[in-house]
Amino acid sequence: MSDVPVYMVVNLKVTDSEEYLKYEKGFFPLLKRYDGQFITFDDNPIALEGDAPRSGRMIIFSFPSEQAAKDWWADEEYQALSSYRRAGTKMEFLTMIRGMPQRD
């Protein structure tokens, strides 16, 4: 399973844009360090169905493997940087979803 991509799905609410901007500035170089790819974000997601529609920012990014995602998360520089995210947002969730293996 280590050769399947993983997707990170995030829902947060920005509460202090200055603190969050510090996080954003450092996020992309660290994402690239682990071969991550930023896919998209949306500040106004549209809920079509469900009991708990999401509000706030939805973010999706990916890594080529579960190990790369775990290494990114465990990176000391990332954890230090994430203090700005924690100070500037209310995190609803950050979830790792495993991709499908390639079909032959």
Write a structural description:
The chain has a single domain, classed as Alpha-Beta Plaits (2-Layer Sandwich). The chain is built from three helices and four strands. A four-stranded antiparallel sheet has the order 2-3-1-4. It is flat, with a radius of gyration of 14 Å. The model has no long low-confidence stretch (mean pLDDT 94). InterPro entries: Dimeric_a/b-barrel (IPR011008), DUF1330 (IPR010753). It comes from SAR92 clade bacterium.
End-to-end gap? 15 Å
Backbone structural class: alpha+beta
User: Over all CA atoms, what is the radius of gyration?
Assistant: 14 Å
- Please state the average pLDDT score: 94
The total of beta strands comes to: 4
Number of domains: 1
Order of helices and strands: EHEEHHE
Helical amount: 25-40%
CATH architecture type? 2-Layer Sandwich
Strand order of the largest sheet: 2-3-1-4
Number of helices: 3
Kindly provide the name of the CATH class. Answer: Alpha Beta
Strand content: 25-35%
Poorly predicted tracts of residues: none
**What is the CATH topology assignment?**
Alpha-Beta Plaits
* Main sheet makeup: 4 strands, antiparallel
Q: Say what oligomer this is.
A: single chain
Shape category: flat
Protein name: DUF1330 domain-containing protein
Organism: SAR92 clade bacterium
Domain DUF1330: 6-94
Primary descriptors:
flat, 38% helix, 104 residues, 3 helices, alpha+beta
Would you summarize the structure shown here?
The protein is an alpha+beta fold. It has helices spanning 17-33, 66-74, 76-88, and strands at 6-14, 37-42, 57-63, 89-98.
